[in-house]
Amino acid sequence: MEKKKTGVGKSHVPIHDGSTALPGFVRSPFKMEGRKQLVFVGIVLLAIAVAAYLLVPYQILLLAYSIYAVLLLMTYLTIWLDGASEMREPAKSPKKWPSVTIIIPSFNAGHTIFKCLEHCKALRYKGKLEIMVIDDGSTDGSAQKLAKMKGISFLTMKNSNSKAGVLNYGIARAKSEIIACVDSDTYANADVLEKTVPYFYEDKKIGSVVVFINAANPKSLIQRVQELEYWVSFGFYFKTVDYVDGLHVTPGPMALYRRQVFERIGPMDEHNITEDLEIGLRMRQAGWKIKACHAAMVYTEVPATLTTLFNQRLRWFRGGLMNILTYNHLFLNPRFGALGMFTMPMVLTSGLFAALFTLWTVLDWVRGAAVGALPILSNLTAYLPVALRGPPADILMINSVALVAIIPVFIWCFFLYSGFKIASRKPSVHYAVPALILLFLYPALLGITFLAAYAYELSGRKYKW
Fold first, then answer.
1. What phi and psi values does residue 179 have, to the nearest 5 degrees?
2. Residue 278's CB: how many other CB atoms inside 10 A?
3. Are 420 and 328 spatial neighbours (Cβ–Cβ below 8 Å)?
4. Which terminus in the chain has less CB density within 10 A, N or C?
5. How many helices (H) and strands (E) does the chain have?
6. Which of 275, 282, 217, 284 is nearest to 251 (CA)?
């Protein structure tokens, strides 16, 4: 469930941006007790980054970042070709299907929740199924309509101020063996439960099963870009990381949990801005596994404008940074297998390097503009010691940078093609413009958002959700 803003002046239809919450929400503080060494490492890395910008030509920084991207993407490609692409769904069905409770939090979701419930009621399932809707003080009239609806358990609460609070309210009252958390703006295919539940019988340590998330009915160009992004992220990436048992998050639109998970590790963190990541990391810390079922598809509403997309991703990245640093003891810890040795380093370094490279790029543009406006500045380096000027950039360096920098684009094209296959879609001219934006412009937006996330966290700026 995403908390929504109510439009003022023109309409009272909630705006979906995935970034706002009720005024009473207070995020959990980030504590660093006993981790002074981590702060010290962060300061050293920042100092190195600043020194690299000041002393090393931008072309060499671009070359270094491109080499990092190539190595990272080649790792994914190797895992994919090693067998991730051939992963199959469980062949056997349980002899007795367990009871399932679907929990749907709702806050001013009248424009989506009835469609969500229509899909939930259409689910095919041989076991006992309960649909529980929990309203968190809606003011759009949806609660009154939901209270009269048949076939659901309708509960109300007031001022939980967080999605996790509503989910915990439902989890504490659900009696089923399996609990499925579904956002009010997410629409599941009829076979979702038939596809996902068997996973829990493959391994007793599987605590959560996540699904293949797609963008629902994308209309704007921004939404169509996200449609492709979701096929790569929740399709190719999740399938690849799942193959090495490295999944670390249970995405909010829909995830299934074994009841024992909450009984053993406790409820979701009600003051966490990305509670789906926090519960995933806490599960992995406790020894539970997370599996991805790509045969089970759901469709979720995605931001329609650049502003709402930025706000959503800013929350995701800030929450990701906070949670990964909180669970930093998993980082490079062989006891946690691929999660500690691959997923955690990859997630942290990807965001860090994207933010640093964005900062380097912006500073290089500023320096170029300043040099163009004030030619005398271009001669200031003549007063620096030779050792501090950095190696000069020549035409051969520029050509080599261009060659290395283009390699990740080709690898990403393969990832995108694989995403099409996982989504059972065929590439066509219709996807040409969104694909070009995803490949060449979208990374810049993500880099800016990563940079903003680091700046906001370091400055201690308050977050609405």
1. -115, 125
2. 24
3. no
4. C
5. 17, 10
6. 275
3-state secondary structure of 103: strand
Residue type, 128: K
Quote the pTM value.
0.87
229 closest CA partner among 17, 435, 429, 426: 435
d(CA 225, CA 304): 10
List Cα–Cα distances, 292 to 79, 89, 214, 288, in angstroms.
Answer: 16, 9, 14, 14
- Region of 112 please: left (phi>0), alpha (psi -120 to 50) or beta: alpha
Q: Give the number of C-alpha atoms closer than 13 A to the C-alpha of residue 76, restricted to the C-beta side.
A: 24
Tokens representing residue 328 in the block: 């930093």
290: alpha, beta or left? (left if phi > 0; alpha if psi -120 to 50): beta
The domain locations on the chain are: 96-303
Q: Which residue has the tokens 């979702």?
A: 192
DSSP conformation letters of 412-426: HHHHHHHHHHHTT--
Ranges of H-type helices in 148-236: 163-171, 192-196, 221-230
Q: Specify the 3-state DSSP secondary structure of 153.
A: strand
C-alpha closest to that of 155 among 165, 163, 164, 166:
166
CA–CA distance, 173 with 171 (Å, rounded to integer):
5
Per-residue pLDDT of the chain (465 residues; tens, 9 = 90+): 444 333 333 333 343 344 445 555 666 665 554 455 556 666 676 677 777 777 778 778 888 888 999 999 999 999 999 999 998 888 678 989 999 999 999 999 999 999 999 999 999 999 999 999 999 999 999 999 999 999 999 999 987 778 999 999 999 999 999 999 999 999 999 999 999 999 999 999 999 999 999 999 999 999 999 999 999 999 999 999 999 999 999 999 999 999 999 999 999 999 898 999 999 999 999 999 999 999 999 999 999 999 999 999 999 999 998 898 889 899 899 999 999 999 999 998 898 889 888 888 887 787 777 666 666 555 555 554 544 445 555 555 556 777 788 899 999 999 999 999 999 999 999 999 999 999 999 999 999 999 999 888 877 676 655
Cα four-point dihedral sign 229, 231, 234, 239: negative
Beta strands in 228-372 (DSSP E): 254-258, 289-300
In sequence order, what DSSP letters do the residues of 387-443 get, joined into one string? HHH-PPP-HHHHHHHHHHHHHHHHHHHHHHHHHHHHTT----GGGHHHHHHHHHTHH
Residue 155 has phi, psi (to 5 degrees) of -125, 155
Q: What are phi and psi of 354, to 5 degrees?
A: -65, -40
Spatial separation of the C-alpha atoms in residues 282 and 329, rounded to whole Å: 12
CATH of 96-303, one of 3.40.50.300, 3.40.50.620, 1.10.760.10, 3.90.550.10: 3.90.550.10
